[in-house]
Each structure stands twice: as structure tokens, then as C-alpha cells.
Amino acid sequence: MSTTVFVSGATGFIAQHIVKQLLEDGYKVVGSVRSQAKGEDLKSLISKAGLKADNFSYAIVEDIAAKGAFDEALKSNPEVTVFLHTASPFHFDVSDVKKQLLDPAVEGTTNALNAIKEYGKNIKRVVVTSSYAAITGFGQLAIPGKTVNEESWNPITEKQALADPQSGYIGSKTFAEREVWNFVEKSKPQWDISVVNPVWVFGPAAFEVKDKSKLNTSNEVVGGILKAGKDKSQPQQYTGYFIDVRDVAKAEIIAFEKQDAVGQRLILSSGPFTTEKVVEILKKDFKDLPLPTLDESKKPDFDKSESIIDNEKTKKILGFKFIGLEKSVDDTVSQLV
Asked: What are the residue boundaries of the NAD-dependent epimerase/dehydratase domain, all occurrences included (predicted)?
């Protein structure tokens, strides 16, 4: 197979799984990274995993929000026929919501789409990683008990998004995805597009974890429990929906391989989770692990905060069964301990 796939933000948690699965499936991959050091590091992880490192190359894109960020990367790789855009900030450690979350997400997406239109002469399929954050409201905008599906949108405004980092992240995902569909409507590009909208993403890292103190933001749910067990402290308690990272990667690949996915938003959710449920799984499957006793009074109420997801259409298009919570948690923790 000689198809070459471009993966933006290739060192990210989800992106590394995409790179891994693409190489396993016989694709060639060009990944964008922020520096040569990060590119070489990823190449060595690929080698160590016994994958064909010769089929992976990288392009340096220091700042996805800089004008023309992806132009050179696509000019130098005219063989690319598929573009998977996964690069977007996901962290809450910010002092300026607009500058650190909203602008990079929206401008990074616009830069990628402009570069594909201008220089991706052979590109036929584009998949953008959005988020469940773009599907429904949270916090003040939550619609508990209301069913949402692939047609639903978060009604957040820019003013609401600037309130705090969490609202900023939610806004960044919503505005960046709106930008995608507006671009497609206005520009009528020669390529087809699909968007994936994952919920909280759990699961192990694609390659060996060198620094176990720095987990990706989603896995902090699990990491927080392990840390609280050690420190004899209280972890922050969460509730919501989860999907395993390996299923996200699989869905991204099916999204460009399958004609049924063209023009679709795909909600990736395996089912609900709570911190309490994760602790129960760990008690059962890791008997020697020190685990916290959760404070009942801090328990979040799923029914009072969460919308009901109907993603039957997505499941039908993808055609595979999602990994369950127990396997996802067990595989994550096995890698960490």
C-alpha cells in the first residue's frame, strides 16, 4: 500500500496511536512535530516498538497558529493523499484563554485547511479531531437528561468561553469545528471531510511512557486516583462519558477509508464512567494498589450534569465494538504501575 497520510500534532496522545495503527496497516506517515528533537524521539519510539520506522517521516511545524504554518510541510510532501488534523491545545494551565486556547485551536485549523486547499494537490480525504465539547453544553449551559446526537451543537459564545480555562477549552473545540464546516461550505474543496468528536479519552499510551508523572489530561482521572491512593488524599471526582484512545485512532482511520463517513460528525463514546466506578475496577483487578476512600459528599451526580448520547449512527458507520471501561482502565494502569 503506498498511501501517505499526514498526521498533524503527531506526538499527541491520540495522534501517536493513529501513527502506530497507520504503520501497522501498511500506510506511510508524515507527522508534524514542534521540533527536530520531538520528531527524532517519536521515530525512536516507533523503532523500539518494532514498527517500520522507514515508513515514518516528520515535518517541523513550530506553531500551528502561525500564518501559513503547514504550507512548507505540504509543499515538501506532495505524495500525501490523506490529512488527519489532530493538533489542538488540550490543557487547562493557561493565563490567557484567548491567546492560549481559542486562537491556536481556530487558527491552527484554518491554517491546516488553507494549506490543504493551496498545496495539498493530491489530498482526497481530510479528518479533523474535534470533541464532544462541541456537541453539547457544560456547566451553565448543561442540558442534563436531554438527548444529543451527531447533529447537536454546543451553544457557547465567545464571551462565555473567555470566563475560565475550562470554558475556553470547550469554546476552542466548538469554534474550531464550526470553522471547519464553514470553510467546506464556502470553499467547496476537492477533498471530502469527516469530523470525529471523542468524549473523555482513556487508555494506555501508544509507546513506552518515559515520564509517568506527566499524563495526558484525560488520563489524569485515572492518574489522580493512583496519586490520591499514595498520598492518602482525596482525588477530584468526575463523571461523564469515556472512549478508549485505541478506538479513537481506529475511528480516525475508518473515517477516511469509508465512503459512509464522508461529511459526517462521529460521536465517539463507549459509555458513562464515574471516579467511583474506576476505583471499584482498580480494587478488583489491582489488589495491591493503595487506593483512596472516596468522600461520598463530593460525588458528582451524572443525572444532574450530563446529556444523554445517542451515537447509533456513528456506531453503524464505524462498524466495530468499542472497548469497555474495565479493559481501558486496566490497560492504562498496567502501563503506569
From this structure: 5-262
β-partners of residue 266 are: 196
Q: Is residue 302 part of a domain?
A: no
The pLDDT tens digits for 244-264 are 999 999 999 999 999 999 999
- Say which CATH number the domain at 43 has: 3.40.50.720
Distance CA 63, CA 70 (A): 9
Residue 124 lies in a domain: yes
DSSP 141-187: G--TT-EE-TT------HHHHTTSHHHHHHHHHHHHHHHHHHHHHHH
- High-pLDDT (> 90) share of the chain, %: 86
pLDDT of residue 25: 96
121-176: pLDDT as tens digits: 999 999 999 999 999 999 999 999 999 999 999 999 999 999 998 899 999 999 99
Mean pLDDT of 63-84: 95
Phi-psi bin for 26: left (phi > 0), alpha (psi -120 to 50), beta?
Answer: left
Contacting residues for 122 by C-beta, under 8 A, at least 6 apart: 78, 79, 80, 81
Q: Considering only CA atoms, which of 43, 45, 76, 46 is closest in space to residue 59?
A: 76
pLDDT, mean over the chain: 94
Residue 31 domain-assigned (yes or no): yes
Cell of 71: 504550507
Distances (CA, A) of 282 to 9, 214, 309, 334: 32, 20, 26, 10
The tens digit of pLDDT for each residue in 93-108 reads: 678 899 888 988 899 8
Instruction: Note down the domain range covering 40.
Output: 4-205+243-270+308-323
